[in-house]
Structure to design on (930 residues):
């Protein structure tokens, strides 16, 4: 077939007169591009209009804030300055420091490890739910989401209680010599990851399930019939088919984890700032809204880059199907 | 007689017309039964709105929330900032005759000369709560800040100004130091203390208190109210103000800049400064009241509790924290450094 | 297909991780000591107090109303968005741009979202008083960030469905309307429901955005809970959380039961 600029459907009947109303075959029927676009615009227009008014426009305004100065008492003075960007790069009242880089690094590590753990547990869970009888599946899915209805602070506080020095879990650890007598199981790294995984797991399982449920097992069997080893069967038979769900799950787990700090504070002893802490504080005790906007928008841009990277990886994997 | 139902109906219909007086404060910071007394005395309904931290309140007010609340409660250290940001308005002093009840020591602070903007509500201190069975001697910041003399697991207060100021006091410097070099030394020491193996991390006052009560920690940096509560939960625990110096704080009642119910706001402030009301409130909340006229009605066991009413000796080594203006950015950078290393 | 033996084990581990804190919360709600962690004795007092606590009841009602309305709005808008993006041959730049736009709310920290929304409402308030801080602004704010989550889940489901069935239906002379209603939508339903569930729970638990955007008459549960946590989480709050969990579970079981009963009805 001749290469064309329309991009969508290779069964296009006229391919060089794209500028004028070309008649194309889309989804098996004859139609015109303007008709399709018109219908599409109506569908996406509502949501984009909504988000445009309430989100995109104000976010653009916020980007302007990144170049404004902080007033004497913490308000905003609209005088142009590079100070916020230089502060982000590490130049503060004490000179240059790596603080912000360290903060970013810790957040990325926390989010990455959490995502990996969630995927390791969530993928089998999605399969298990998909293998249940049809009537039980929506029930199980909903049961996975129910814990998220309880306030995150309350749930994390419950973990604190559960890991407390008088509770059975700490008892076992004390007798095994893992922690000194009378100590609780937090603040520790394990406690933080317990809290993070328990909080983010529903956001991993649900998107994974939507792909796993529609898995075409005949392809998996075909791969096995062709003498593919277990790993290759998994990678090319199962993983490749679940790519869309996997991508959504990774996004919905990694990105919010990047900005989280409540769990790390409550179960990790609040010893280290994460990106979320840094941003929140600028709008709170430190009252430096321009710098808060800068740090926040930096996180947004960095996350979008991460997203872009994830998408490229997933497209490449799906392409290898 | 037949007009009675009609009169009642009219009363019912117009009862909803009195606008409420909205106060924005911490949770459990007022005796809930006072709402009825307030209504009986002034006819206004009290509506309590809660925030978790006063910086959240300030952020919310900055985004246009000043017309949603009437009375604001915040500590003195942010009053200057709130005045500068135009979040509060000057008081009509004629509507607050009960201001005469307030002890002279609690009036006319540097952050609000002449009390043009607010009157005090409760005051307290930040210090160390400890288990005397495991920690011996007079309270000192060395228990948490000196790795060589830490008696056991401890928590630090997760509050930038208080913790840095306390470290400065421990090092013999001014608790409101504006000198970069001094703050840098304090910050380094604080980071070292945080990283020492006995440190259980930063925690709010309540968490720290819980740790000491459960025995997981032997000393915790807390607010005095938390300590008072902890001492009720586990008698035998003690609270003290370290000999190097400690923070004294005072919460102020102020009127929001665009308060919808100005008359009600002033009435509420005046009501809370009444001797009987202040006494009842203080006995319930178990914080120290600045209303001198109420002191004779405070329960004796509360007066005797040094966690609520410190001794004169202890008070001598307390300092108010000030708003540092431009230098607060330097302290902020310092706090970031503490929590990055 | 038979799953390897460790799959159910890992799944149960996952469920345990999810429900362990809830169990702890439930147990603590019967604790008679108000503050602190020691066990004081079994009591149902907190439940009684919670039920008669006006503030809690009104906040719970607000949260529920807010959750339902914003979820419905977001699900409708999000599903339309997902279908419109997936089923139209947009040029590449538009698809990349839409991707970016949809991911923006997921990627933006809560506080930035909150400030942006407050800014938008401040401007809109000049134009119409309907944008005064209160339930309306809350619903709008929640819908705005929920749309992305719904779209992401529904889109991934759409991609999995593929084009074959639609083309087959087309060959059987079905028009677009029939295809979407009777072929696409039923297949999409699990994705839509998953997206709606996700959106609902995000709304129920949101604190930062709600704090900045709401007015004093529209307090939600998270706002009430966060403010109370400062003084120490009381068993009353634990009782409230337990009630929420049990209530949600009962609602789900009821819905599933009704669904099962309906499908078990003999053909008429």
């Amino acid at each position: 077939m001749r290469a064309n600029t329309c991009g969508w459907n290779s069964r296009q009947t006229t391919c060089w007169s794209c500028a004028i109303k070309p008649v194309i075959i889309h989804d098996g029927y004859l139609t015109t591009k303007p008709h399709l676009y018109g219908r599409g615009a109506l569908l996406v227009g509502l949501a984009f209009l909504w988000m445009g008014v309430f989100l995109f426009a104000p976010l653009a305004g916020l980007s302007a804030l990144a170049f404004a100065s902080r007033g004497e008492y913490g308000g905003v003075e609209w005088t142009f300055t590079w100070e916020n960007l230089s502060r982000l790069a590490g130049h503060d009242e004490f000179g240059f420091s790596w603080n912000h880089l360290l903060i970013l690094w810790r957040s990325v590590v926390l989010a990455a490890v959490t995502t990996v753990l969630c995927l390791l547990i969530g993928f089998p869970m999605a399969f298990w739910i998909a293998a249940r009888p049809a009537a039980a599946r929506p029930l199980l899915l909903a049961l996975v989401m129910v814990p998220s209805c309880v306030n995150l602070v309350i749930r994390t506080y419950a973990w604190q209680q559960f890991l407390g020095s008088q509770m059975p879990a700490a008892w076992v650890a004390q007798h095994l010599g893992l922690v000194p007598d009378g100590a609780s199981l937090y603040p520790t790294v394990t406690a933080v990851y317990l809290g993070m995984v328990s909080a983010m797991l529903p956001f991993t399982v649900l998107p994974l399930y939507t792909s796993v449920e529609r898995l075409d097992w005949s392809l998996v069997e075909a791969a096995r019939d062709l003498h593919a080893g277990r790993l290759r069967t998994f990678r090319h038979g199962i993983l490749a088919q679940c790519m869309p769900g996997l991508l959504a799950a990774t996004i919905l787990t990694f990105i919010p984890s990047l900005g989280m700090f409540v769990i790390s504070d409550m179960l990790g002893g609040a010893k280290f700032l994460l990106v979320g802490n840094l941003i929140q504080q600028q709008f709170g005790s430190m009252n430096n809204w321009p710098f808060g906007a800068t740090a926040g928008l930096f996180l947004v841009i960095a996350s979008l880059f991460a997203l872009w990277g994830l998408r490229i990886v997933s497209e490449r994997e799906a392409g290898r199907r | 007689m037949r007009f009675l139902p009609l009169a009642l109906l009219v009363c019912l219909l117009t009862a909803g017309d009195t606008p409420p007086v909205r106060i924005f404060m911490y949770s459990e910071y007022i005796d809930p039964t006072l709402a009825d007394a307030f209504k009986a005395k002034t006819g206004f309904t009290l509506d309590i709105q809660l925030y978790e931290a006063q910086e959240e309140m300030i952020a919310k007010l900055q985004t246009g929330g000043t017309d949603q609340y009437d009375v604001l409660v915040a500590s003195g250290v942010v009053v200057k900032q709130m005045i500068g940001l135009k979040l509060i308005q000057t008081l009509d002093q004629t509507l607050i005759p009960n201001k005469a009840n307030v002890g002279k020591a609690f009036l006319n602070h540097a952050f609000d000369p002449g009390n043009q903007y607010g009157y005090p509500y409760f005051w307290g201190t930040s210090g160390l709560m400890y288990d005397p069975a495991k920690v011996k001697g007079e309270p000192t910041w060395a228990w948490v800040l000196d790795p060589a003399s830490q008696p056991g697991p401890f928590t630090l207060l997760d509050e930038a100004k208080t913790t840095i100021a306390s470290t400065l006091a421990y090092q013999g410097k001014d608790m409101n130091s504006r000198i970069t070099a001094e703050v840098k030394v304090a910050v380094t020491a604080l980071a070292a203390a945080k990283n020492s193996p006995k440190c259980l991390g930063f925690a709010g006052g309540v968490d720290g208190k819980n740790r000491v009560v459960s025995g997981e920690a032997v000393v915790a940096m807390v607010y005095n109210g938390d300590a008072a509560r902890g001492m009720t939960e586990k008698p035998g625990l003690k609270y003290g103000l370290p000999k190097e110096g400690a923070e004294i704080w005072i919460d102020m009642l102020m009127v929001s800049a665009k308060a919808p119910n100005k008359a009600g706001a002033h009435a509420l402030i005046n009501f809370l400064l009444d001797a009987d009301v202040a006494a009842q409130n203080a006995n319930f909340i178990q914080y120290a009241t600045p209303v001198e006229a109420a002191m004779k009605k405070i329960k004796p066991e509360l007066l005797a509790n040094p966690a609520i009413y410190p001794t004169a000796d202890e008070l001598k080594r307390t300092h108010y924290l000030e708003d540092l203006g431009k230098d607060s950015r330097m302290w902020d950078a310092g706090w970031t450094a503490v929590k990055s290393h | 297909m038979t799953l390897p033996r460790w799959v159910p084990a890992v799944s149960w581990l996952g469920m345990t991780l999810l429900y362990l804190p809830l169990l702890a919360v439930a147990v603590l709600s019967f604790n008679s000591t108000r503050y602190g962690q020691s066990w004081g004795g079994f009591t149902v007092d907190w439940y009684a107090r919670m039920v008669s606590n006006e503030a809690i009841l009104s906040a719970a009602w607000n949260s529920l109303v807010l959750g339902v309305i914003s979820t419905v709005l977001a699900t409708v808008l999000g599903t339309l968005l997902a279908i419109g993006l997936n089923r139209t041959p947009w040029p590449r730049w538009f698809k990349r741009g839409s991707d970016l736009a949809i991911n923006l709310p997921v990627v933006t920290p809560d506080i930035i979202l909150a400030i942006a929304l407050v800014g938008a409402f401040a401007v809109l308030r000049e134009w119409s008083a309907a944008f005064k801080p209160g339930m309306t602004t809350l619903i709008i704010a929640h819908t705005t960030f929920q749309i992305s989550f719904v779209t992401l889940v529904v889109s991934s489901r759409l991609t999995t469905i593929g084009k074959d069935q639609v083309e087959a239906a087309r060959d059987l002379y079905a028009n677009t309307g029939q295809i979407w209603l009777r072929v696409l939508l039923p297949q999409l339903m699990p994705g839509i429901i998953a997206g709606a569930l996700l959106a609902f729970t995000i709304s129920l638990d949101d604190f930062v955005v709600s704090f900045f955007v709401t007015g004093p008459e529209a307090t939600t549960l998270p706002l009430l809970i966060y403010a109370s946590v400062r003084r120490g989480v009381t068993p009353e709050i634990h009782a409230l959380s337990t009630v929420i969990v049990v209530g949600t579970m009962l609602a789900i079981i009821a819905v599933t039961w009704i669904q099962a009963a309906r499908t078990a009805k003999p053909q008429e």
Remarks:
- The interface with chain B takes residues 70-75, 92-94, 97-100, 102-103, 164-166, 182-184, 187, 265, 268-273, 277-278, 281, 283-289 of chain A (CB under 8 Å).
- The mean pLDDT of chain A is 84.
- Residues 89 and 100 of chain A are 7 Å apart (CA to CA).
- Residues 16-65 of chain A form one domain.
